Every structure is written in structure tokens, then in C-alpha cells.
UniProtKB/TrEMBL annotation:
CDD domains assigned to the protein according to its UniProt record, in alphabetical order: EVE
Protein known as: Thymocyte nuclear protein 1
Compartments, as annotated in UniProt: Nucleus
Keywords associated with the record: Nucleus, Phosphoprotein
Main function: Specifically binds 5-hydroxymethylcytosine (5hmC), suggesting that it acts as a specific reader of 5hmC.
Lineage of the organism: Eukaryota, Metazoa, Chordata, Craniata, Vertebrata
One Pfam family matching this protein: EVE
Region entry Disordered, spans: 1-64
Domain of life: Eukaryota
The keyword Glycoprotein belongs to this UniProt entry's keyword annotation: no
PANTHER family the record matches: THYMOCYTE NUCLEAR PROTEIN 1
Length: 241
């Protein structure tokens, strides 16, 4: 039996610990919105995001936003029970680890931009598993994409909280990917810590200055640049503040 839909984005809830969060609002855009492009992620783990970012900055002094490429991702899921149309949408990283082969489909996304990000994901790319809408939101682990985008079956299931009566099987609106557990991060990396770096980097031009976790915080599927991924990953080596 597949798990009920638990990853949602139709009106994604801002993290409870995020003081700058705006009131909930559905972020629906045109089907014609251009998909974000991505490239394959290099194998292995990163060690020094800040140094890598500095090297990139030196070799590309222009740094225009148009040159940004996204090759990693951040996936939000709710680790605490919450009923949506009578269905518990809870899905933590421990729930993922309990799945056969520690793999599951990432269903229930009902926002066009987030859907386009799903469709841009490439086999083998890595993503942070982020616990959202809970007492202490933050990054808890790493997953990888093991199957690229295909139709989300929950859009056709009338019993599912994410059923979409306007979607047709011959032309499905919504997609999902399969993800597999890679590992837990060496420590929990809380939103508050990431935000502190984001604010500092906004002032000094660091790699997290434009991190979508703060510029488009309601999206449950968010792209990361190589520099953003490297820097956040490097935080697991540091002692919590």
C-alpha cells in the first residue's frame, strides 16, 4: 500500500519558527511558466562551500543571476501529524527510512513552480530533506533522485486530499519523482542557523544571499546552487551555536 499524499504545496505553510513569513497564499502560476534548468550533481560530498564559492566568484566576477544553475534541491515534508481532508499528511525522514529500499515517490505537489522544479530534477541529483511546519524546522538528512518526473497518481484519486478534478490522464497537470534515503546529516541543521548565515551573506555577498528558503519560503520544492548546497552541507561539521 502506498503512503497517502503527504508532501503538499498548494498553499504551502510557512515554518512556524520563521518570523518573516507572510500570510498563507496559493502561489499558482501559468502552465507555460518556464522550467528551471538543472545540471547533474557531481558525485561525492562537498567539504568547503565557502572556499568553493570564493573560487567561483573570482572566476566569474559578473555573477549575473542569469548564469545561476541549480543542481541540488531542498524538499520540505511535515514530520508531525496533521490531518488534511481526513488524511494524515505526516512524513518524516524516519518514515522514508522505513520504506522498502528506503525509497518513495514524492507526491502531492500542487504548485506550478514547484512542479516545474520536480520536472527539472535529474537522476542522481541530491537534495536536503527538510522538516517543515513543526516545532523546530530544519535539515535532517540527504536524499537522491532515483526516478525522474512522471505523472503523480494522487491527482486522479478522489479519496486523496490532493485530488484534482481538472487534471486529465491524457494530459496530467502534476508530476512526482522517486527519492531514496542517502544518509542523515551529521547533526540537525536548524532553520534559525541557516537564516543567520543568510542575513550575514546578504550583507557581505556570501553564497546564501539569494537562498530560496528565504526569498520564496512557501515553496516545498526548492532548487539550490552548488555553492548553496556546499555551504549548508559544511555546517554539519560545525558545532551548533
Amino acid at each position: 500500500m502506498p503512503w497517502p499524499s503527504r508532501k503538499r504545496d498548494k498553499a504551502a505553510v510557512a515554518d512556524k519558527k520563521e518570523p518573516d513569513a507572510k500570510m498563507a497564499k496559493t502561489e499558482e502560476t501559468s502552465d507555460k511558466e518556464e522550467e528551471e534548468k538543472s545540471t547533474k550533481a557531481p558525485a561525492g560530498t562537498s567539504k568547503s562551500g565557502w572556499k568553493n564559492w570564493k573560487k567561483t566568484k573570482e572566476s566569474d566576477p559578473g555573477g549575473e543571476e542569469s548564469k545561476i544553475t541549480y543542481c541540488h534541491w531542498l524538499l520540505k515534508s511535515e514530520p508531525e501529524s496533521r490531518l488534511e481532508k481526513g488524511v494524515d499528511v505526516k512524513f518524516s525522514i524516519d518514515d522514508l527510512k522505513a520504506q522498502p529500499n528506503q525509497t518513495t515517490f514524492w507526491d502531492g505537489v500542487r504548485n506550478y513552480q514547484a512542479r516545474n522544479f520536480l520536472r527539472a530534477m535529474k537522476l542522481g541529483q541530491q537534495a536536503f530533506f527538510y522538516h517543515s511546519n513543526c516545532k523546530e524546522p530544519g535539515i535532517v538528512g540527504i536524499v537522491k533522485i532515483v526516478k525522474e518526473a512522471y505523472p503523480d497518481h494522487t491527482q486522479f484519486d478522489q479519496k486523496d486530499p490532493h485530488y484534482d478534478s481538472s487534471s486529465r490522464k491524457e494530459n496530467p497537470k502534476w508530476s512526482m519523482v522517486d527519492v531514496q534515503f542517502v544518509r542523515m546529516t551529521k547533526r540537525f541543521i536548524p532553520l534559525s542557523e541557516i537564516k543567520a548565515h543568510h542575513l550575514a551573506h546578504k550583507a557581505d555577498g556570501g553564497p546564501l544571499k539569494n537562498m530560496m528558503l528565504f526569498t520564496r519560503q512557501r515553496l516545498s520544492i526548492q532548487p539550490l546552487t552548488q555553492e548553496e548546497f556546499d555551504f549548508v552541507l559544511s555546517l554539519e561539521e560545525e558545532k551548533p551555536h
